[in-house]
Specification:
With 244 residues, the chain is α/β, with parallel strands linked by helices. It has helices at 11-22, 34-46, 65-76, 92-97, 99-127, 148-168, 200-213, 224-232, 236-239; strands at residues 2-6, 26-31, 51-56, 81-84, 130-135, 173-180, 183-184, 198-199, 217-220. The chain has a seven-stranded parallel β-sheet, sandwiched between helices.
Length: 244
């Protein structure tokens, strides 16, 4: 399988890549940090990947996306599956105060995803096969005071991927939306941990499985599905007084 991973230096993305590597997949890793990309590539080769290429790029810059995908195709001879996993939690307090920060978070966590999804969808639709997997978040299921800017960006990703999945239904192309809860990674290092935190290795394995099966919407860990169903069901007049 020929797999491209955008945001390949994230812990969750690398855990997913490790699963594909054990299958002997051909991989392209895209991200900003050349040193970490090289280290991840070396690790994946040891784990069994047939081929691993790296592409250094600022994925928030949508103007680079067409060339980036062309380079991935040239390296692999085509793309069978793509995982879009880059992003940042940002600074929630700064996002409340700064329009520039809001725009930046939307660019990184939403608009850049939409750009890559559109280009990949058009490519795969012509072939009538492929898988596009995006990492959204449970934060996108309902706006909450503590992270509503990040949550709004992820809500946009969830809605966009849902519409794309509907558009591509019957085309042979699957669109997988992953909705993790908090995961114990460097991104959440400053957060107080609780039993609700997931593990990066199990999350990566679940993403890998969902991509192979072409699933639709996947909560990780699974229990976030019923949790978010309950949270979405709270009437707004009550929800606005909570601190969830």
């Amino acid at each position: 399988m020929r797999v491209v991973i955008f945001g390949a230096t994230s812990v969750i993305a690398h855990e997913t890549a490790k699963c594909f590597a054990t299958d002997g997949a051909d991989l392209v890793l895209a991200g900003r940090d050349a040193t970490r990309l090289a280290a991840n590539a070396a690790d994946l080769k040891v784990r069994g990947a047939k081929q691993v290429e790296t592409l250094v790029a600022d994925l928030a810059d949508v103007s680079t996306h067409p060339k980036l995908i062309d380079e991935a195709i040239a390296a692999l001879g085509g793309i069978d599956a793509a995982l879009i996993a880059h992003g940042t939690l940002g600074d929630p307090k700064l996002s409340e105060e700064s329009v520039d920060e809001v725009m930046l978070q939307m660019q990184v966590n939403a608009l850049s995803y939409m750009s890559l999804m559109t280009l990949l969808a058009n490519l795969m639709e012509k072939r009538r096969s492929g898988c596009i997997c995006v990492i959204s978040s449970v934060a996108g299921d309902r706006g909450r005071a503590r992270n509503y800017v990040y949550g709004s960006a992820k809500a946009a990703v969830t809605a966009f991927s849902s519409g794309l999945r509907n558009r591509l239904s019957g085309s042979g192309v699957s669109v997988v939306t992953i909705k993790p809860g908090p995961i114990d990674t460097p991104m959440t290092a400053s957060h107080r941990k609780s039993p609700l935190f997931g593990k990066a290795d199990k999350t990566g394995r679940r993403i890998y499985e969902a991509m192979l099966k072409g699933e639709d919407v996947v909560y990780v860990p699974w229990f976030w599905g019923p949790i978010m169903l309950a949270i979405r069901s709270i009437p707004e007049r009550i929800f606005k007084k909570t601190n969830l």
